[in-house]
UniProtKB/TrEMBL annotation:
Homodimer. GO terms for biological process: diadenosine tetraphosphate biosynthetic process; glycyl-tRNA aminoacylation. This is Glycine--tRNA ligase. The lineage of its organism: Bacteria, Pseudomonadati, Bacteroidota, Cytophagia, Cytophagales. The gene is glyQS. InterPro entries: aa-tRNA-synt_IIb, aa-tRNA-synth_II, aa-tRNA-synth_II/BPL/LPL, Anticodon-bd, Anticodon-bd_dom_sf, Gly-tRNA_synthase/POLG2, Gly_tRNA_ligase_bac, GlyRS-like_core. The keyword Coiled coil does not apply. Its main location: cytoplasm. It comes from the Bacteria. Catalyzes the attachment of glycine to tRNA(Gly). It comes from Catalinimonas alkaloidigena. Substrate binds at R106, E194, F241, E242, Q243, M244, E245, E348, T349, S350, V351, G352.
Length: 492
């Protein structure tokens, strides 16, 4: 990417962030108190869009796969859970401070940004070498070497412009709190940094009560919390976020076959949502997490570059084995087919709901120049997949008199039983169309004087702005076909 193109992408991203706030998708949390860094609230349309994304993922997992079921585990878990998972000892990031600006950074992020800059300058080999050196130092836990690499590369603080860095230190990312009615008797517990462990500790509960046979999966959607040193890029990296995870339990030795299966399945799912193939790619991990023997990210090309939206990991038997050892409870499965007991291996698919929301929003944000008679004008709209759109249709009476509002209200009252629809009568019809375009509503239904004569309405299609006349009796079927999850499922 050239420097000019990078500036253009940054400007587009700023527009998307502004659009998200102005039109009710995402607000800074506690904004009246000047906000809370890296914490955001979803507005009325953002909540609908995010819920649609989560419902689509949930049904894709638990409805289309007869051997995948879902649970909803608690956020609070016994503290030993995080000892067994390795989070107490290993869940940390390398932290470095700039003495002049007094700002704190993740050391690996500073180096990654430098590598991205090399790629933007047309030096991919230099970027790859830099990343390789960084990964080797992090794997060896050589924090002094990481600092030396930062100095060697001439990496400076974005605020102060100096390289007056402290030593690199490890910073645990878990939030801790106390549980107990009396402070002196309170015991330390953690806000979960991932949702996966709630699945692992319930492995046998689900397997026995559901009479599940391996291979089978357990899915979950839930909040997780990480005390990120530096959170950035809007909702891409937050301290409170939501994960959509599925752990797939399999026989030892079969993990790589299932790893490839879910790797391909999940990429196909993202394409079905409307994310173009040209903006999706795999990124294999060079530095593996402590629990994995293989890992790949599905990355989407945001305006700020390719970044992870989902990870597929072969977790081996790390989690169940450690929980068995620490809890002293047997977490084995007896396989009737081979007459053996074993601790299952696991392949994980883990999607960041907030990151996917941001990817969908970035892809949907559309600016185009359109002809308006002899003039041209700029048009902005959200080209959301109809199944994900916060509002499926807007019912708009042409004028606020002569019985048109009453007729439009009757259509609204009927359609709201099946779809998320809205009724709006204020302002000129053109302005109302524009408002719906800006929140991604795929259909606008105009009620006019002809409607009173023959019970037909005009449907305006968001993407093309084309209009067609249809009977009121056909509205439910027409809208239903377009917004149904079935259109996504058929591509899977």
């Amino acid at each position: 990417m050239t420097a000019q193109a990078q500036i253009g992408s940054e400007q587009v991203f700023r527009k998307i962030i502004a659009h998200a706030k102005e039109y009710g998708f995402v607000f800074p949390s506690s904004e009246i108190y000047d906000g809370l860094q890296a914490v955001y609230d979803y507005g009325q349309y953002g909540a609908e869009l995010k819920n649609n994304i989560k419902r689509l993922w949930w049904q894709s997992m638990t409805q289309l796969n007869e051997n995948v079921v879902g649970i909803d585990a608690a956020i609070f878990m016994h503290p030993l859970t995080w000892k067994a998972s390795g989070h107490v000892d290993s869940f940390s990031d390398p932290m470095i401070d700039n003495r002049d600006s007094k700002k704190r950074y993740r050391a690996d992020n500073l180096i990654e940004d430098k590598a991205d800059a090399y790629e933007a300058e047309g030096q991919p080999e230099r970027a790859a070498t830099l990343r390789s050196r960084m990964n080797a130092l992090l794997s060896a836990e050589d924090l002094t070497g990481v600092r030396d690499l930062i100095l060697e590369e001439g990496i400076t603080c974005p605020l102060s412009g100096t390289a007056n860095w402290t030593e690199v230190r490890q910073f645990n990312l878990m939030f801790s709190t106390q549980m107990g009615s009396v402070a002196d008797e309170a015991s330390e517990i953690y806000l979960r940094p991932e949702t996966a462990q709630g699945i692992f500790v319930n492995f046998l509960n689900v397997q026995k009560t559901g009479r599940m046979k391996i291979p089978f999966g357990i899915a979950q959607i839930g909040k997780a919390f990480r005390n990120e040193i530096v959170a950035r890029q809007f909702i891409f990296r937050m301290r409170e976020f939501e994960q959509m995870e599925m752990q797939y339990f399999i026989r030892p030795g079969e993990e790589m076959n299932w790893y490839e299966h879910w790797k391909e399945t999940r990429l196909r799912w993202h394409r079905a949502l409307g994310l173009p193939e040209s903006k999706l790619r795999y990124h294999d991990h060079e530095k593996l997490a402590h629990y994995a023997n293989a890992a790949v990210d599905i990355e989407f090309e945001f305006p700020f570059g390719f970044k992870e939206i989902e990870g597929i990991h072969s977790r081996t038997d790390f989690d169940l084995k450690n929980h068995q050892e620490l809890s002293r409870k047997k977490l084995q499965y007896f396989d009737e087919e081979i007459k053996e007991s074993y601790i299952p291996y696991v392949v994980e698919t883990s999607v960041g709901a907030d990151r996917l929301f941001l990817a969908v929003l970035c892809q949907a944000y559309t600016e185009e120049t359109v002809e308006d008679g002899e003039k041209t004008k700029e048009r902005t709209y959200l080209k959301l997949h109809p199944a994900l759109a916060p509002v499926k249709a807007a019912i708009l009476p042409l004028v606020r008199k002569d019985g048109l509002p009453e007729k439009a209200q009757a259509i609204y009252d009927d359609l709201k039983l099946d779809f998320k629809v809205i009724y709006e009568e204020k302002a000129a019809i053109g302005k109302r169309y524009t408002r719906q375009d800006l929140i991604g509503t795929p259909f606008c239904i105009a009620v006019d004087y002809q409607t009173l004569e023959d019970n037909t309405v005009t449907i305006r299609h968001r993407d093309t702005t084309e209009q067609e006349r249809v009977p009121i009796a056909e509205l439910r079927d027409r809208i239903g076909r377009a917004v149904s999850f079935r259109s996504v499922f058929e591509q899977l």
